[in-house]
Specification:
Blueprint: E1 9-14, E2 17-25, H1 28-37, H2 40-49, H3 57-72, E3 83-90, H4 99-113, E4 119-123, H5 128-136, E5 140-147, E6 150-157
Parallel strand pairs: 3-4
Antiparallel strand pairs: 1-2, 2-3, 4-6, 5-6
Bound molecules: coenzyme A (COA).
Coenzyme A binds at residues 88-90, 95-101, 123, 127-130, 132-133, 136.
Length: 159
């Protein structure tokens, strides 16, 4: 993914160590097409089925089905384009110190530079710190979707 969309692949460092990251992609479809073309999806699925990610066999099917549901609902509640904030995380020792706020603001700045007009994300509604982070950085609720683990809150922002 880093090779396909390097601009939105952000890392936060503290004392020389990586303490957080965020992955913004200006086009989700382009990433998905590249993942299929390069065989990444098939290698990942094969590795998961062979126990490569320490998942039980029954869990592998849940993960794969959830990925299919994610792809199928990827266009819902968008008004334009297919940019996405795919993931963000900060190491627990650095929580509450503004690292994620900086990552989101920098990601939106990068999207603006790439002339992206809308970015979408999905977050579990019960992930209170993430939902608060997104509201604080200008995202608003656009709708809800579901997968096998429950509800997703869909949020969008204009960079
Ligand atoms: C969500 C996450 C990325 C926030 O990272 P962070 O660096 O701690 O966030 P920040 O310090 O920038 O805080 C941003 C806002 O989030 C909210 N927040 C942060 N920690 C919180 C907590 N423990 N409880 C409630 N709200 C919290 C606050 O509104 C905060 O703004 P404020 O400090 O002005 O009040 C981090 O908790 C994390 O890595 N969680 C696990 C991975 C995850 O859930 N990712 C999101 C996937 S959708």
């Amino acid at each position: 993914m880093r090779e396909v969309e390097p601009a939105g692949f952000l890392g936060a460092h503290h004392d020389g160590a990586l303490v957080g990251y965020a992955i913004f992609v200006p086009s989700l479809k382009r990433v998905q097409r590249q993942a299929i073309r390069r065989g990444v999806i098939f290698r990942w699925a094969w590795s998961a089925l062979r126990g490569g990610f320490a998942l039980r066999f029954s869990a592998v099917w849940r993960v794969l089905l959830n990925k299919v549901l994610f792809v199928r609902s990827g266009n819902r509640y968008r008004s334009t384009g297919d940019a996405q904030l795919l993931n963000i995380a900060v190491v627990p020792a650095m929580h509450g110190r503004g690292v994620a706020t900086s990552l989101v603001r920098e990601g939106l700045r990068v999207m603006r530079e790439l002339r992206v007009r809308e970015v979408r994300l999905e977050v579990r509604p019960w992930n209170a710190s993430a939902v608060a982070l997104y509201r604080k950085t200008g995202w608003h609720e656009a709708g809800r979707t579901r997968d096998l683990e429950g509800e997703w809150l869909v949020m969008v922002a204009q960079p």
